[in-house]
Amino acid sequence: MSWFDEVEYIRKQAKKNNEFFANSLPMIASENVLSPLCREMLITDFHGRYAEGTPGHRYYQGCKFFDLVEEKAMELAKKLFNCHYADVRPTAGTTANIAIFKALIKPGEPVTVLDLADGAHISFGKWGAAGVRGVELISYPFNDEEMNIYVDGAVKLIKKVKPKLALNGRSVFLFPTPLKEIAEAAHDVGAYLVYDAAHVLGLIGGKQFQDPLREGADVMSGSTHKTLPGPQGGLILSDHTGDTDLDKSFLRKLGFGVFPGVTSSYHLHHVAAKAIAFAEHLEFGGAYAKQTIKNAQHLARSLYGRGFKVFGEKLGFTKSHQVLLEIGPGKGKEASQKLEDTGIVTNMNTIPGDEDPLNPSGLRLGTPELTRIGMNENEMEEIAEFFKRALLKKEDTKKIKADVKEFRKDFQELHYCFKEGFRGYDYHKLI
User: Fold this and answer.
1) Is the pTM of this model over 0.85?
2) What is the number of helices (H) and of strands (E) in the chain?
């Protein structure tokens, strides 16, 4: 191949990817799509520039315009989450978690955490960020029926082991964490409570989930591209004010954990896009989060009514953007591939009792992107029927795929974002 052929090959794959998702039902719980104004920021000259440090205190010249953008991003984040401290520099949610570990705990010190098999994110596991920092992980007891931390057991555990950090956050996040009781126990033993809001950040910002910073969390990390539909990136928030020497030290440690801890320059074009996403969420976040949860709940009920085993039945299946299905021992991967063949994009997922993450027994479903393109409860009913046809009735995948494509054609416009001047914008046509 010539260099031109190589470039055309890459562009062709990007176009095929755009076409695939434009004709499919994207149901990965950790994915979303950018608004036109956010996307515009990603192709500005901010890309490729350096801004080590903080606004007004840089190691490079040429940052005067970006300083204003970063200050605005922090201002909007603090307004959106009603807090005193916001760091928009982390380049991912996991990066934010590593920065918090670097800031607040030393290798070998104990932390309490949810086990990965019970739905925790890998960054809180021994193979992820927590393992990189070399901390001692002690797992909370878990209630399989309620798909949540067993709060009385967690309180007893914290009082017994006296961790440095009490970690809370999940990759499977169906219900709010019983945070107040855990926070009280953590603070009683001198621990900081850390809440990883990666999946539910947009639901929290939309005031439709729980309010961790008011329920006792000392610091909250998050991803800016899941239920908060911004660019891929991370965020650290705290309601500590810095009014006391102890507070100042705490916030200074957090900042130092980010830089020079885990970032050099930090993707300035993404920071600009984050700022726009925060502004859009201040305007549309409440309605978007509310409909996202409604869609997840209706999807769960519809799947259950068609014979699927859906977790969280006793509590209404879900109070978030996620639905967790049990498919059968080791059948999650096979089911997710079958669904992709029909144009439905999901991910295999461990469920309580699974031991092999590469051969799990469940599927995790999410409604953020479906909601973003204008779908509501009626569409969730039809999507549940597609699931039944593919996984229970085992109909021909080509026939279902054709029906999915036809179903999807009326949902090609973004909602819950600023669209003035962008009417007719076809979001999936990037090239």
Assistant:
1) yes
2) 14, 17
